[in-house]
Protein: Endoribonuclease L-PSP/chorismate mutase-like domain-containing protein
Amino acid sequence: MNAEERFNKLGLRLPPAPTPLGVYKPYVIDGKYLYLSGHGPVREDKTLIIGRIGSELDVEEGKLAARQVGLTMLSTIHTHIGSLDKIKRVIKVLGMVNCTPDFERHPYVINGCSELFAAVWGEENGIGVRSAVGFGSLPDNIPVEIEALFELY
Structure:
């Protein structure tokens, strides 16, 4: 199965690809590499999931928010690159978690995105290197922001 077929088998829907609200590009292609800017959790109705993990959201809601960020990133790829099949592999993921100072499960939250990528591109190509870190705040009080680097075919 290719990435598009795997995604369709998951039964998930892509939200609309976000448009920049600041001075940046949502993606850049450099040779065989695709860089995605930080993405937030956009829902199908274009609204954002909002809230700090450890206060307004629990760890499971945070993990679901990270999966929604992954879906938003897939939407950017599908919209601007044309197909998930053009991605050879995930190289790096940086996950930023908006959380309370005592929260310590950042990697578990970012697994929401990483597990999605593994399901779409397979474990060999869908899992790259990763960092998962906590932040005191993120734009618009989103719970998770993720940026990534991919290798293109």
Notes: The radius of gyration is 14 Å. The first helix runs from residue 3 to 10.
